[in-house]
Design goal:
By secondary structure, the chain is an alpha/beta fold. The protein has one domain: Methylthiotransferase, N-terminal domain (Rossmann fold, 3-Layer(aba) Sandwich), CATH 3.40.50. Helix content is about 40%, strand content about 15%. The protein contains 3 helices and 5 strands. Strands 2-1-3-4-5 form a 5-stranded parallel sheet, with helices on both faces. The protein is globular, with a radius of gyration of 17 Å.
């Protein structure tokens, strides 16, 4: 019995798009996080406009300066809406805003997949 060989397309891994808001400390934290993710053979981009429906968005927020807090909230809401529309896969929030206001954020923006504080970045991999 002869069977035809079928080519199986490899399943594309979702890419992770890291959005950095706020101070230079957040820039550093995002760079460390992206290095860890790449070290685990994940596809990572920084602040890419090229996002897909299966992509994971990680928003590194600021929770101290009023303008930066508002920018962080606006960005979370923007990606929350994209998730509701099926245009991104997961949305993860980290950083100072998430550290300081996690209970409030979880109760107000319920479709976010995870909230991590500033000391929890390593847990994003799990």
């Amino acid at each position: 019995m002869i069977t035809k060989n079928k080519l199986v397309k490899p399943v594309a891994k979702p890419k992770i798009n890291v959005i950095t808001l706020g101070c230079s400390k957040n820039t550093y934290d995002s760079e460390v996080l992206m290095g860890q993710l790449r070290g685990n053979n994940l596809s990572v981009e920084h602040e890419s406009n090229n996002i897909g429906k299966d992509d994971i968005i990680v928003i590194n927020t600021c929770g101290f300066i009023d303008n930066a807090k508002q920018e962080s909230i606006d960005t979370i809401l923007q990606y929350s809406q994209l998730k509701d529309e099926g245009k991104v896969g997961k949305v993860i929030v980290t950083g100072c805003l998430s550290e300081r206001y996690k209970p409030e954020l979880e109760s107000e923006i319920t479709n976010i997949d995870a909230f991590f504080g500033t000391n929890d970045l390593q847990n994003i991999l799990h």
